[in-house]
From TrEMBL:
It is found in: Cell membrane. InterPro entries: AAA+_ATPase, ABC_transporter-like_ATP-bd, ABC_transporter-like_CS, ABC_transporter_ATP-binding, P-loop_NTPase. The keyword Cell membrane applies. Residues 6-232 form the ABC transporter domain. It comes from the Bacteria. It is a peripheral membrane protein. The lineage of its organism: Bacteria, Bacillati, Actinomycetota, Actinomycetes, Pseudonocardiales. GO terms for cellular component: plasma membrane. Belongs to the ABC transporter superfamily. Its main location: membrane. One of its GO terms (molecular function) is ATP hydrolysis activity. This is ABC-2 type transport system ATP-binding protein. One of its GO terms (biological process) is response to antibiotic.
Length: 301
C-alpha cells in the first residue's frame, strides 16, 4: 500500500487572538480527490497554505510526498501544483504565453503547453490576451499553469468561486480529467453540491476545526435524516397524508404539502395507489443537512 500523499497532524495557527486552525489532522491517499468544505472564515485556505509550505504553523506537522514542505522545500516544488484563491498573471501576455512562461521555470516544452490548453478547453483562446478572457476561462488558465509541469499533487483553493453555473460545470469536467490522469487533488470550496459530486472524501470544517471527514455518501447515510416527499397542495388532504404508512410528519404551505419519512418505499407505494404521483418530488439528505446537523446553524457562504 502506497504511503499517503499528504499527512497533516495537529495543526494550529493563530492570527492574534483568532485561532484560524485549531488542531487539524487528516490524510490524503495517493490519487484521491479530497475537498475541504466550509464557509468563508472556516480556516480552509490557511490549512491549505500550511500544507503547501507557504505558511509555517504555530504547531503540528505536515508530510507532503514523504517530506516536510516547511521551511520552503525546493525538492517538492516540481512535484506540486498550486492554484491560489486570487490568481495573478503577467500583463499583456496571451494564454499561451502565460503557460509558456510558467512552463519555462520547469523546462517544459511547447507540446506540454498545447496539451494543457487542450485539457482546460482553451486551445481556441491560445492567442487571446489574459485580460480579455472571461472569469471562467481565467480560472481554467490558472489551473493549467498549476498543472503545466505535471505535478503529482495539485492544490486548488476555491477554483469555482464567483463563476456562473455553466462555467462551474465546465470546470468540474476539467477537475475530473485531472484526477483521471492519476493526480492527487486537495481543494477547498464552500459549494456543498460541488463537493458531493466531485470528491472521494470531504472534510467539513468550521471555526478552525474538522467536524467530520468521510465519503459524501457515508456522511449522509450516517446522519439518518428523513426523506421529504413533496406534493402539490390539494393533491392530498393533510389528514390523509398523516395516516399514510411511513409518514412521520406533514407540513404544508400555500403551494405544497411535504411528508417526512424514514420509510419512503411504503409511503411512495401508498401514494402511487392513490394516483398522486404527478408533480411529486423526493428529497433525500445531502451534505448541507450534514453540515447543518454538525454546526447547528445555517450554512454561511
Amino acid at each position: 500500500m502506497s504511503p499517503p500523499a499528504l499527512t497533516v497532524t495537529d495543526l494550529t495557527m493563530s492570527y492574534g487572538e483568532l485561532r484560524a486552525v485549531d488542531g487539524v489532522s487528516f490524510e490524503v491517499a495517493e490519487g484521491e480527490f479530497v475537498g475541504i468544505l466550509g464557509p468563508n472564515g472556516a480556516g480552509k485556505t490557511t490549512t491549505l497554505e500550511i500544507a503547501e509550505g507557504l505558511r509555517e504553523p504555530d504547531s503540528g506537522t505536515v508530510r507532503l510526498l514523504g517530506e516536510s514542505p516547511w521551511p520552503r522545500n525546493l525538492a517538492l516544488l516540481p512535484r506540486i501544483g498550486v492554484q491560489l484563491q486570487a490568481s495573478a498573471f503577467f500583463e499583456k501576455l496571451t494564454a499561451r504565453e502565460q503557460l509558456e512562461t510558467f512552463g519555462a521555470l520547469y523546462g517544459v516544452g511547447s507540446a506540454r503547453v498545447d496539451e494543457m490548453l487542450d485539457l482546460v478547453g482553451l486551445s481556441d483562446k491560445a492567442g487571446t490576451p489574459e485580460a480579455k478572457l472571461s472569469g471562467g476561462q481565467r480560472q481554467r488558465l490558472s489551473i493549467a499553469c498549476a498543472l503545466v509541469h505535471d505535478p503529482d499533487v495539485v492544490f486548488l483553493d476555491e477554483p469555482t468561486a464567483a463563476l456562473d453555473p455553466q462555467a462551474r460545470r465546465n470546470l468540474w469536467d476539467v477537475l475530473r480529467e485531472i484526477q483521471a490522469r492519476g493526480k492527487t487533488i486537495v481543494y477547498t470550496t464552500h459549494y456543498l453540491d460541488e463537493a458531493e459530486v466531485l470528491c472521494d472524501r470531504v472534510a467539513i470544517m468550521d471555526q478552525g476545526r474538522i467536524l467530520a471527514m468521510d465519503t459524501p455518501a457515508r456522511l449522509v447515510r450516517d446522519l439518518d435524516a428523513a426523506t421529504h416527499v413533496t406534493l402539490e397542495r390539494g393533491a392530498l388532504p393533510a389528514d390523509d397524508a398523516r395516516a399514510l404508512p411511513g409518514a412521520d410528519g406533514v407540513t404544508q404551505d400555500e403551494v405544497s404539502l411535504t411528508i417526512a419519512t424514514r420509510a419512503p418505499a411504503p409511503l411512495l407505494t401508498a401514494l402511487a395507489e392513490r394516483g398522486t404521483l404527478d408533480g411529486l418530488q423526493v428529497r433525500t439528505a445531502t451534505l448541507e443537512d450534514v453540515f447543518l446537523h454538525l454546526t447547528g446553524r445555517e450554512y454561511r457562504a
